[in-house]
Design goal:
- The protein has a domain at 114-302 and 311-354: Spore Coat Polysaccharide Biosynthesis Protein SpsA, Chain A.
- Helices cover 29% and strands 15% of the residues.
- It has helices spanning 12-35, 37-51, 112-118, 149-165, 185-199, 255-260, 274-284, 316-319, 323-326; strands at 127-128, 138-145, 169-177, 204-208, 212-214, 228-229, 233-234, 250-254, 298-301, 338-344, 349-354.
- The protein is elongated.
- It binds 2-(butanoylamino)-2-deoxy-beta-D-glucopyranose.
- Residues 242, 248, 272-273, 275-276, 316-317, 320 line the site of 2-(butanoylamino)-2-deoxy-beta-D-glucopyranose (BGN).
Length: 358
Amino acid sequence: MTHSVRDFSVLSRPCSLVVFLSAVHLLVALYYVLYSPETLSFLPYFKEAFSNTGLPTNRSRNDGMFVTSAQSKEPSPDETTSLPSAAPQSCPETPPRLVGPHHVEFSNPVSLELVRKENPEIQEGGRWRPKDCTARQKVAIIIPYRHRKTHLKYWLYYLHPILQRQQLDYGVYVVNQYGETTFNRAKLMNVGFTEALKQYDYDCFVFSDVDIVPADDRNLYKCYNQPRHLSVALDKFGFRLPYERIFGGASAMNKEQFTKINGYPNNYWGWGGEDDDVSNRLSIRGLSISRPDSIIGRCRMITHTEDTNNAPNPKRFDQIKHTRETIDRDGLSSLQYRLVSVEKCPLYTNVTVDVGTP
Ligand code: BGN
């Protein structure tokens, strides 16, 4: 009986083929793992984790009010490098973490330190955007202001958490009228619109008095197909509209709506009428006012004593009769002001402006 020597050389070719095919398979698998959309969508988070220290820059004073200065700096279109990068999917139409009606009171004083502590994600200049989804709107909140620090603290205390729950990509702009000349709320709105747009590509503008706080976070501080009146059920007016065409307090317009009406009028000095002029402008340009219902639209107003240099404007009765003649020549198209400073504070951007005299 002879032992035959086994000849393995016949297996050599199939084996090489198997090895070759396995290598190709491995490479293909590796390619898909590295370049799949899922993997790519994680990259910004990795990048962010390594690049974002979350620390504001240029700290100079520590009283919480004035921390950074961007006074003479020419702003870039998006100075939001410390904000989360754009997330892959857009935020849901209805923000998921809203709580509905919530308690608002102004009996215990709040400090800016407390607001900062309770809102650790707010970036300098009062900027925030969601990190797990892309906000549906970029909203600049414009607050006309002078000597109302206590009110501003309450406003920031209540509004920052609400705006975050509403998943907005937002910035807060306090437009501070320089000097002691007669207050001009409407012109400060136009300045806020103009200056906010120099900082970021906002598409929606909420114009709010510093003393108005919504009592229900379903009242979304965003823009709609029609200009939106937000402060519809104020405690001051018994939680209903004092008159149908009112547009004062807090309201929102997108860029297109606001430019269509040529912004606010610039020549209403002192209290009253400028919001009625805007309401007229909306009708003249064929726009209507949208509103939340009077439950969602509940707001509280901080009571205060009469402001100095903001007496009722005696000319307002006559002025609001002539909106049709003034709309084109008075507004964004004729806006002139002297910018005094733009300071990026931890919870808001402080724009100080000399709007001139009547
Ligand atoms: C109105 C004021 C508004 C103000 C509301 C609510 C005028 C114009 C002359 C009728 N309008 O009467 O500016 O927002 O009250 O306070 O005064």
